């Protein structure tokens, strides 16, 4: 009986598949209404105001409640969402969005262009940590009618079109958030949006409960009755809850990689590595480039040569990664922004070349075999980072650099690296986000040397040519020309090695097999789960 | 007469506790200033990088740009008005946050207290009665193991055995968040979730009280009043229950009173392992987020709790041992 039914379904699937277009639910199997999905998020979000905090836990909850103007497919191509269509004119300085009609907020009020204007101009441009940059070129939003929003820009900002998802730019109701101080708004933690799920309750330390929005604008969606987001502080317990089927979905390293490998073998668990393409974390070693000996390019190159990328991926990240040399993730290969045509540090004779470089740089080995001593600050993000720090110590020892390790808590480490610059070498992973302008420039453009601002140019490297190229790429509307600019930028920074990029992280999402269509876009767990369903 | 004296004594003690609690608040405030980094850095860090204007604005909004003494003065003034302030990280008043998490903590602490003190007294008494038999040795060995095993490990093992293998108890949480039970079903559900965390947190204290109880019972059994009682012809059972037990309880009660504070500390681990939504976890998270308003609020409440429990212990003394009189007033 069963195989027959599956065959029949396959037939239906292929038929529907032809008719299926961007927005339509992918008809994989007969989706079923009902069921509760338990998502594990770690740590508990401090707030549900995703317009003011881009922290990963906040985004995973709030994206079920708020929609964005756009969604994206796996090639990072924009798709309609609250905006039905859009046109870019005036050399990229005018963007006109045609908004969907008949959309209602969870409180029953209609969604109009006034909400878009308010959200971007009054909220995202002012208080969103990344929106301040994303929308910096937007001077005004005109609303000739409730279904039209016209963005006026001083200069073209092609990257802005990549930052309009429900995660990056959630659309808020003006009639709710328009009154009172947006920074400490009472509705931050009782959000009202247009998304497939409505906020019901947040019991701190336990869960957030989201119930199905019966008036969702996508007909027939969502399939699930409820999403419960649970907070479980202990890694072992998180894995146990998933193993037992008490919880159904967990990603972003909520389950450590060694547990992922163990859970993968269970019959009720599936592992998914897609769904992080709009984040694209790249791991880097940071050098304090204004402090000797790291002001010497040969020293930085030598350290980059000393890291065996595949070893790190296999042993620290349990295989969830991909070796790299440069700052831009290979997820940008379809758009041409990623370039492999850079200096290659990932070579079999890396240690020999590193030793030669250090000899040339004027740091000969002393009698005890060491060249100089440094302190390596471990990234305080958890197990794999601690092991990565220990590996780096060993790798450096092989080329005669004696490193002692320092491990501090997140706040102390952030201050050391991004405010006091009181470090030699540290590591981090920065998200590329949906466009290099949003996620890549900040790591080495000299405009981003900002004491006190975290996750920017903490290496304090500055190169006029690279800056100029990045400034051009920022406003270049032609994708092909932008790709050429990024090819050149990558060539320059990889050779100069202000940071040593080692690998792209492939986050793993642990899924209960009974739940389908949970990860359906590059936004992954930042998707709205409107198409997720339970067998 | 005795009753009114007890009440007057209690009130006086409470009054005396005010400067103690304030001292704790000031000390905590100053200690927290020593921690590097502040809430604005952490929030900006979680945001994945933010412009300096944003961080500066956060700092101004949190009042972190004020001189330290001004901050302290403001905080003390608010505490005296019982205003614990606002947690910017959680976008909620500190008092609300704490009260929300207080009752799960009290539930876990209460259950642990009953199990560890009650169990410790009974097992310790039995061990003393069975002294130097195999049963006494068994109890002692188990107690030492329970005493020496780390809490988190016990918790994880209990989850593995009783939740995953045997499927008797849920792995974590305080109630079933898929079912959302109500009424009696909810109470039973919570009790069901309470079992493993209570056992985990109790084992250490259970072992401690067992050892203590065994030692004091043995000591009391050699005391002269026991010989006297025996000479008077009382049965062994009556001597144990009426005389030895009451006297042997005093050190256990003292110990239990002192350890209420430690119980809060131990509950951080257990709450984390079992995702129990209590104060311990909240304190832990707020420390790493440098959410000092919230942390100071929790410290303040803990200090009050310890003061109250100690007072209760003193009152229990009087009830247990008529020789102890309340004095002072």
TrEMBL record, chain A:
<dbReference type="GO" id="GO:0043190">
    <property type="term" value="C:ATP-binding cassette (ABC) transporter complex"/>
</dbReference>
<dbReference type="GO" id="GO:1904680">
    <property type="term" value="F:peptide transmembrane transporter activity"/>
</dbReference>
<keyword id="KW-0732">Signal</keyword>
<dbReference type="InterPro" id="IPR030678">
    <property type="entry name" value="Peptide/Ni-bd"/>
</dbReference>
<dbReference type="Pfam" id="PF00496">
    <property type="entry name" value="SBP_bac_5"/>
</dbReference>
<dbReference type="GO" id="GO:0030288">
    <property type="term" value="C:outer membrane-bounded periplasmic space"/>
</dbReference>
<protein>
    <submittedName>
        <fullName>ABC transporter substrate-binding protein</fullName>
    </submittedName>
</protein>
<comment type="similarity">
    <text>Belongs to the bacterial solute-binding protein 5 family.</text>
</comment>
<dbReference type="InterPro" id="IPR039424">
    <property type="entry name" value="SBP_5"/>
</dbReference>
<dbReference type="InterPro" id="IPR000914">
    <property type="entry name" value="SBP_5_dom"/>
</dbReference>
<dbReference type="GO" id="GO:0015833">
    <property type="term" value="P:peptide transport"/>
</dbReference>
<feature type="domain" description="Solute-binding protein family 5">
    <location>
        <begin position="78"/>
        <end position="430"/>
    </location>
</feature>
UniProtKB/TrEMBL annotation, chain B:
<keyword id="KW-0812">Transmembrane</keyword>
<feature type="transmembrane region" description="Helical">
    <location>
        <begin position="12"/>
        <end position="35"/>
    </location>
</feature>
<protein>
    <submittedName>
        <fullName>ABC transporter permease</fullName>
    </submittedName>
</protein>
<dbReference type="InterPro" id="IPR000515">
    <property type="entry name" value="MetI-like"/>
</dbReference>
<feature type="transmembrane region" description="Helical">
    <location>
        <begin position="106"/>
        <end position="131"/>
    </location>
</feature>
<dbReference type="Pfam" id="PF00528">
    <property type="entry name" value="BPD_transp_1"/>
</dbReference>
<comment type="similarity">
    <text>Belongs to the binding-protein-dependent transport system permease family.</text>
</comment>
<feature type="transmembrane region" description="Helical">
    <location>
        <begin position="138"/>
        <end position="166"/>
    </location>
</feature>
<feature type="transmembrane region" description="Helical">
    <location>
        <begin position="294"/>
        <end position="320"/>
    </location>
</feature>
<keyword id="KW-1003">Cell membrane</keyword>
<keyword id="KW-1133">Transmembrane helix</keyword>
<keyword id="KW-0472">Membrane</keyword>
<dbReference type="GO" id="GO:0005886">
    <property type="term" value="C:plasma membrane"/>
</dbReference>
<dbReference type="InterPro" id="IPR035906">
    <property type="entry name" value="MetI-like_sf"/>
</dbReference>
<dbReference type="GO" id="GO:0055085">
    <property type="term" value="P:transmembrane transport"/>
</dbReference>
<dbReference type="InterPro" id="IPR045621">
    <property type="entry name" value="BPD_transp_1_N"/>
</dbReference>
<feature type="domain" description="ABC transmembrane type-1">
    <location>
        <begin position="102"/>
        <end position="317"/>
    </location>
</feature>
<dbReference type="Pfam" id="PF19300">
    <property type="entry name" value="BPD_transp_1_N"/>
</dbReference>
<keyword id="KW-0813">Transport</keyword>
<feature type="transmembrane region" description="Helical">
    <location>
        <begin position="190"/>
        <end position="208"/>
    </location>
</feature>
<feature type="transmembrane region" description="Helical">
    <location>
        <begin position="248"/>
        <end position="274"/>
    </location>
</feature>
């Amino acid at each position: 009986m069963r195989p027959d039914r599956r065959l029949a379904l396959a037939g239906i699937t292929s038929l529907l598949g032809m008719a299926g277009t961007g927005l339509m639910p992918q008809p994989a199997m007969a989706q079923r209404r009902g069921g509760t999905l338990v998502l594990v998020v770690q740590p508990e979000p401090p707030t549900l105001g995703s317009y003011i905090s881009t922290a990963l836990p906040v985004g995973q909850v709030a994206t079920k409640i708020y929609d964005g103007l756009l969604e994206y497919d796996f090639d990072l191509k924009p798709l309609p969402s609250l905006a039905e269509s859009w046109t870019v004119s005036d050399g990229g300085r005018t963007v006109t969005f045609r908004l969907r009609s008949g959309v209602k907020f969870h409180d029953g009020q209609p969604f109009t262009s006034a909400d878009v204007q308010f959200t971007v101009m009054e909220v995202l441009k002012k208080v969103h940590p990344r929106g301040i940059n994303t929308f910096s070129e937007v001077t005004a939003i005109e609303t000739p009618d409730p279904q039209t929003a016209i963005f006026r820009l001083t200069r073209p900002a092609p990257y802005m079109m990549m930052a309009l998802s429900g995660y990056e730019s959630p659309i808020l109701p003006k009639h709710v958030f328009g009154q009172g101080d947006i920074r400490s708004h009472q509705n931050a933690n009782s959000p009202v949006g247009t998304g497939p799920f409505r906020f019901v309750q947040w019991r701190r330390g336990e869960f957030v409960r989201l119930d199905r929005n019966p008036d969702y604008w996508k007909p027939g969606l969502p399939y699930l009755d409820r999403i419960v987001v649970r907070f479980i502080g202990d890694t072992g317990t998180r894995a146990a809850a998933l193993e037992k089927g008490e919880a159904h979905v967990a990603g972003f390293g909520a389950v450590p990689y060694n547990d992922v490998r163990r859970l993968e073998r269970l019959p009720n668990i599936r592992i998914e590595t897609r769904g992080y393409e709009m984040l694209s974390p790249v791991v880097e070693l940071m050098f304090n480039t204004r402090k000797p000996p790291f002001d010497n390019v040969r020293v930085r190159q030598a350290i980059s040569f000393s890291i065996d990328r595949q070893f790190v991926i296999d042993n620290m990240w349990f295989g969830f990664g991909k070796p790299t040399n440069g700052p831009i993730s290979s997820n940008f290969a379809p758009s041409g922004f990623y370039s492999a045509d850079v200096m290659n540090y990932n070579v079999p004779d890396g240690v020999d070349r590193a030793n030669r470089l250090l000899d040339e740089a004027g740091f000969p080995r002393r009698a005890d075999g060491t060249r100089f001593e440094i302190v390596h600050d471990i990234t305080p993000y958890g197990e794999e980072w601690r092991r990565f720090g220990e590996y780096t110590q060993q790798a450096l020892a092989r080329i005669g650099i004696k490193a002692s390790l320092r491990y501090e808590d997140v706040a102390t480490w952030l201050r050391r690296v991004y405010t006091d610059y009181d470090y030699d070498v540290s590591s981090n992973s920065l998200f590329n986000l949906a466009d290099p302008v949003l996620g890549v420039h900040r790591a080495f453009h000299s405009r981003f040397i900002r004491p006190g601002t975290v996750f920017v140019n903490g290496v304090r490297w500055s190169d006029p040519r690279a800056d100029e190229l990045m400034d051009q790429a920022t406003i270049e509307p032609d994708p092909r020309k932008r790709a050429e600019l990024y090819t050149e930028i990558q060539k320059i920074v990889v050779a100069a090695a202000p940071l040593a990029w080692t690998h792209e992280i492939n986050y793993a999402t642990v899924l209960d097999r009974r739940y389908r269509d949970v990860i359906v876009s590059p936004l992954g767990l930042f998707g709205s789960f409107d198409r997720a369903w339970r067998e | 007469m005795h009753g009114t004296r007890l009440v007057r004594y209690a009130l006086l003690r409470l009054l005396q506790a005010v400067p103690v609690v304030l001292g704790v608040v000031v000390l905590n405030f100053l200690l927290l200033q020593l921690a590097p980094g502040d809430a604005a850095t952490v929030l900006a860090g979680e945001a994945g990088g933010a412009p300096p204007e944003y961080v500066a604005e956060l700092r101004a909004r949190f009042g972190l740009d004020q001189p330290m003494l001004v901050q302290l003065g403001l905080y003390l003034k608010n505490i005296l008005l019982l205003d614990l302030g606002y947690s910017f990280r959680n976008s909620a008043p500190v008092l609300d946050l704490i009260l929300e998490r207080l009752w799960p903590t009290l539930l876990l602490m209460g259950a642990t207290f009953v199990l560890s003190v009650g169990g410790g007294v009974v097992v310790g008494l039995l061990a003393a009665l069975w002294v130097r038999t195999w049963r006494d040795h068994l109890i002692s060995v188990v107690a030492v193991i329970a005493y020496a095993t780390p809490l988190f490990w016990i918790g994880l093992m209990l989850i593995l055995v009783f939740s995953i293998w045997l499927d008797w108890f849920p792995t974590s949480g305080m109630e079933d968040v898929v079912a959302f039970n109500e009424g009696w079903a909810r109470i039973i559900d919570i009790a069901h979730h309470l079992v493993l965390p209570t056992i985990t947190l109790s084992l250490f204290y259970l072992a401690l009280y067992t050892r203590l109880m065994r030692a004091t019972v043995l000591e009391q059994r050699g005391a002269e009043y026991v010989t006297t009682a025996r000479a008077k012809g009382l049965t062994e059972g009556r001597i144990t229950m009426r005389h030895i037990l009451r006297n042997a309880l005093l050190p256990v009660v003292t110990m239990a009173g002192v350890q209420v504070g430690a119980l809060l500390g131990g509950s951080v681990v257990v709450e984390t392992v079992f995702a129990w939504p209590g104060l311990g976890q909240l304190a832990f998270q707020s420390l790493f987020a440098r959410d000092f308003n919230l942390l100071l609020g929790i410290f303040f409440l803990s200090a009050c709790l310890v003061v109250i429990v100690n007072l209760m212990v003193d009152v229990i003394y009087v009830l247990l041992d008529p020789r102890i009189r309340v004095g002072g007033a």
